[in-house]
């Protein structure tokens, strides 16, 4: 919405203008000032689009006000209104590029036409400005694209003699983002390229950058000077993580060193692409090039993946002891490790954080993102450990509640049955596995599942029998043994009761 400032030392005159603006439904934010001095004070803190001012006023008259306002805002639209039909004032108004000089008393129709014309001019100039900016950005992108593709700068300057090429000197490092699939095709309908770029800029507000959409698989980011190449990699990690969290797609980012001249860009781009060729060897690594410490980190990753799997398994099995042991092992390992890439440490523990948060429903995407950002902002490993210990304690609390829950006991029994349905199973055996009496286990199993344990075992065996009959050529006798039945007749009778036909007839019907 546009803003208008009405300046007149007569309150009634200001009220008339306000009344007319409202009467003709002009969508404007209206400010008022009782003299030129007060108006100047307001203009210094709050810009306006239209200055509607009387000519003769105390302290600072309308001409002086307009002169100083024009210095503050060169594109300001000025309208004078006065009770003096004086050539001197009209001449001054023309010299200040006033839109109109309206005589008092204000005629409503004249006023309406003037304001309508001013608003149309404002909108027209805004569109012209946007078009110039868009053309300018398009040319910049075009020049950069040509430069990266090895067009000499001198040739580009000859092609665009009126263009200022100084913008090329604003950049001193670049990053190449690469996707396995066309990225922008994956964006939701309500989002577009500019929305994505703005999201990235908001994430790294202290490091302005520009973007070039090279092709459906590649985006080039151009940065000004930063403190170090390490900082570049930290920025790249933030971007890679955010893209994955927001869009569920992995991107690979190749980071350049700082360069001195724009003429180096073609060679740098080739290096960035070459760095990304290493993806073939390091499928779980997203930031390139890989230095010696990062390669050491990859070896660590292979070792740590096993520990991470143990932690995930302990959570699933509600095994608090194993969970604590492996968490402690990780913390001890990284407290004692010197010289390991801190980038890897942040990456690994952010991965661990995500794994733990799956057990905590109140950790939504926004909260996880904040925790991840905290990890990448930590200056010492002890700070990362503090974050993870807090989440670990929440997981332990959740597991302790699960451990005491009948649902957990039933889950363990069901899991054991699923893994051992081909063996001899009895209520007594299953009760021993979960340290309960047979009668209590039978009672809570029926309560939680709606059927008894023997029926549950039979149903599972019958479903597996059906699957084997449909998808294998195993003999009926072999299927019987594999399912844990020692008596073929009993198996056949059980199958007929469950499916309405013998196993042999069932197989024949399915083949027809």
TrEMBL record:
Superkingdom, natural source: Bacteria
Residues annotated as domain Response regulatory: 3-119
PTM sites of type 4-aspartylphosphate: 54
Database matches in InterPro entries: CheY-like_superfamily (IPR011006), Homeodomain-like_sf (IPR009057), HTH_AraC (IPR018060), Sig_transdc_resp-reg_receiver (IPR001789), Tscrpt_reg_AraC-type_HTH (IPR020449)
One family name in Pfam for this protein: Response_reg
Domain (HTH araC/xylS-type): residue spans on this chain: 411-509
Keyword Transcription tagged: yes
Keyword terms, alphabetized: DNA-binding, Phosphoprotein, Transcription, Transcription regulation
Keyword Phosphoprotein applies: yes
Name of the molecule in the record: Response regulator
């Amino acid at each position: 919405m546009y803003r208008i400032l009405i300046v007149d030392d007569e309150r009634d005159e200001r009220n008339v203008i306000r009344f007319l603006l409202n009467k003709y439904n002009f969508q404007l934010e209206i400010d008022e000032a009782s003299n030129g001095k007060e108006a100047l004070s307001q203009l210094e803190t709050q810009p306006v689009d239209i200055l509607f001012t009387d000519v003769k006023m105390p302290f600072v008259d309308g001409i002086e006000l307009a002169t100083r306002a024009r210095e503050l805002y060169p594109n300001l639209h000025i309208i004078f209104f006065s009770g003096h039909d004086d050539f001197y004032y009209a001449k001054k108004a023309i010299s200040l590029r006033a839109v109109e000089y309206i005589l008092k008393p204000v005629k409503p129709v004249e006023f309406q036409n003037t304001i309508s014309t001013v608003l149309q001019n404002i909108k027209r100039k805004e569109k012209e400005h946007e078009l110039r900016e868009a053309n300018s950005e398009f040319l910049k992108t075009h020049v950069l694209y040509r430069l990266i593709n090895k067009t000499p700068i001198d040739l580009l300057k000859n092609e665009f003699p009126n263009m200022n090429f100084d913008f090329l000197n604003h950049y001193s490092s670049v990053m190449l983002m690469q996707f396995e699939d066309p990225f922008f095709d994956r964006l939701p309908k309500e989002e577009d390229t500019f929305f994505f770029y703005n999201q990235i800029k908001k994430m790294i507000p202290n490091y302005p950058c520009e973007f070039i959409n090279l092709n459906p698989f590649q985006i080039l980011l151009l940065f000004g000077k930063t403190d170090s190449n390490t900082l570049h990699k930290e920025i790249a990690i933030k971007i890679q993580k955010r893209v994955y969290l927001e869009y569920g797609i992995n991107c690979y980012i190749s980071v350049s060193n700082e360069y001195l001249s724009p003429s180096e860009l073609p060679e740098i781009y080739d290096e960035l692409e070459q760095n990304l060729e290493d993806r073939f060897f390091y499928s779980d690594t997203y930031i390139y090039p890989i230095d010696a410490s990062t390669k050491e980190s990859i070896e660590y990753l292979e070792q740590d993946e096993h520990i991470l799997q143990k932690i995930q398994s302990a959570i699933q099995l509600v095994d608090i002891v194993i969970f604590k042991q492996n968490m402690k092992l990780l913390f001890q390992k990284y407290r004692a490790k010197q010289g390991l890439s801190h980038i890897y440490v942040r990456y690994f523990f952010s991965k661990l954080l995500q794994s733990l948060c799956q057990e905590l429903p109140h950790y939504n995407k926004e909260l996880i993102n904040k925790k991840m950002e905290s990890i990448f902002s930590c200056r010492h490993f002890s700070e990362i450990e503090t974050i993870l210990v807090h989440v670990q304690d929440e997981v332990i609390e959740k597991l302790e509640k699960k451990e005491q829950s009948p649902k957990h006991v039933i889950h363990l029994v069901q899991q054991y049955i699923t893994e051992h349905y081909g063996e001899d199973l009895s209520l007594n055996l299953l009760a021993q596995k979960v340290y309960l009496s047979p009668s209590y286990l039978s009672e809570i199993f029926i309560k939680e599942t709606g059927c008894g344990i023997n029926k549950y075992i039979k149903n599972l065996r019958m479903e597996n029998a059906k699957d084997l009959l449909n998808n294998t050529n195993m003999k009926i006798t072999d299927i019987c043994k594999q399912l844990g039945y020692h008596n073929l007749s009993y198996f056949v009778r059980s199958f007929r009761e469950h499916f309405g036909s013998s196993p042999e007839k069932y197989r024949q019907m399915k083949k027809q």
